Amino acid sequence: MLFGSLSLISGWLWFGTGLFLGNGSGLAVWGLSCAATVLAALALLRRRLQLFGLAALLLATVVVPTLALMALRWKTGAPILMHDGAYQTEQAMRLLLGGLDPYGVDYTTTSMRLWHWYVNTPIDPSLYHYVYPPAVFLLPLPVYALAQWLGAPFDIRLVELLVEVVTAVAIIKLPWRWEWRYLVLAALFLDPFFYLAQGRNDILFLAPIVLAVLAWERDRPLLASLAFGAAAAFKPFAVFFLPLVAVLVWRRARAEQWSAARWLTAMAGLVLPGLVTIAPFFLWNPGAYWADTVSFVAGSDAHRYPIQGYGFSQVLLLLKIVPSPGAYFPFSILQVLGALPAFAFGIRRVVARPTLARALWWATATLTLFLFFSRFVNDNYLAAVLFLAVLAGATGRGARGYGMGHQADRVLSTGPAAAA
After folding, report:
1. Whole-model pTM?
2. What are the pLDDT digits (tens) for 43-99?
3. Please, what is the Cα angle at 149 between 145 and 150, to 5 degrees?
4. Which DSSP symbol is given to 49?
5. By the 8 A CB rule, do 278 and 233 touch?
6. What pLDDT, in 10s, does the model give residues 111-131?
7. Is residue 276 a part of any domain in this protein?
8. Is 214:173 a contact under the CB 8 Å cutoff?
């Protein structure tokens, strides 16, 4: 109800008002979402085809608006309501195919400077940096290259839509009661602060985490490790999951007496995706890569990211402890001091009781504290943290409800009660 109502309100503001798609088309898009909401509610009330009703709602709320905005772009040539990060990723692919390193490039010399959010404003510091890891532009690169070769229109949201479909199918395939799968689907696709129709790329790192949960629940720990590693390759947020998952794999390897080769393969899966995708670009130009992906967000670069959002940095700004949004402040120290206790306690808890749900929960808690004390906290960061918390809770309840997953996820007991 919460996410559905927020999606309807957001859909009205972006589409129903006719501000971007026009009165007729915008109202039709929003009306379809309203009709699908009624259908999903009826499915719940009748207790039949609940996931089908939700799938119809997701189709109307996510897929249709995305396709409408892509059609508008292809018709007008203007990337209206497209996220600047998505548009910049397309520029990064264009630069790479032209033999240029996407990192360290001055994007003010590209069409980014003419993008509608940057026109008639001072030069945004984001135009001097490409903040995302290489996997973000490497994944859609083959599709983009093929479209260029064929002379066909391209929009990176096409690739993201495919990732969203794969993620939705993975959630539906989880061996849980339908209620927990329903909740996870709603938390991911109905939260308007993910801005899926506009092309924000959070889905690229959340999808591998969902696939990792599916692999673990289906008793495929090596695939789960590889998926967690892929998530970290797409966004540094997922790095907080890797040590806790490593402890989880180590405890399972001891309990099941894995061979050394199998254990090392699982450990390698956690780091190889990031290593393989990042290393070539770091070696290409170490200074540029570090400046774009670390110094810029940490605030130590001359073109630093401005302080904004919903974290502790905003409190310091309001109290004038930090003089201006563009000023430097050592937030990294606060981040370490804030997140380290939760991380250490999480390691201890996972060692004591190695379950996937517990690893997910403490990784999410550590990430939350790290973000709270960071230089900026965007609204999609809050959406990601909320989704990960929902996923952790559903993982714990789903495993208990079905007894699926590996033996460490089960509570072992003996005696007459257990036999019953």
Report:
1. 0.91
2. 999 988 999 999 999 999 999 999 999 998 888 887 888 888 999 999 999 999 999
3. 120
4. S
5. yes
6. 776 666 666 666 777 788 899
7. no
8. yes
